[in-house]
Design a protein that fits this description.
Blueprint: H1 5-11, E1 17-21, H2 28-41, E2 44-48, H3 71-76, H4 94-106, H5 127-138
Parallel strand pairs: 1-2
Amino acid sequence: MCFTFDSYFCEWLDKECIFIEEFSMVPNKWMIKIYKAFTMFNNKVYLFGDYNQCEPVETGSQVHYNYQYSITINHMCSKTKTPRYIESTSRYDTETNDLLKVFFDTGRISTYFEPAGKFNKNICLVNSARIRVNTKCYN
């Protein structure tokens, strides 16, 4: 049986599993309630999603909670698994995913994006400008 957060926390159901999709977007106040349910009723908690996803849209949620390394989250979900990257079911191809890993790990954009050299073509809004600019480039 599934419930929304509001209905679940109004009734405090015990002996239930709590499944949370896109857990990085769960506001801190709800995460506290989930932890209370876990400690009071020994609920099983399953979190799904990407911890680098969007942060909660909540007043005061400008503080980023790193749920991946949270002691509380690891206590609730002791069997944390990070599945391998499967390109066919993912939002990025392998190359883009690797570039993002470098960015998240180092905070720097990969050297893959170094400035390119000069080009012989230009992008223009109208064809007349394209013809004029390309003619100048070749002369």
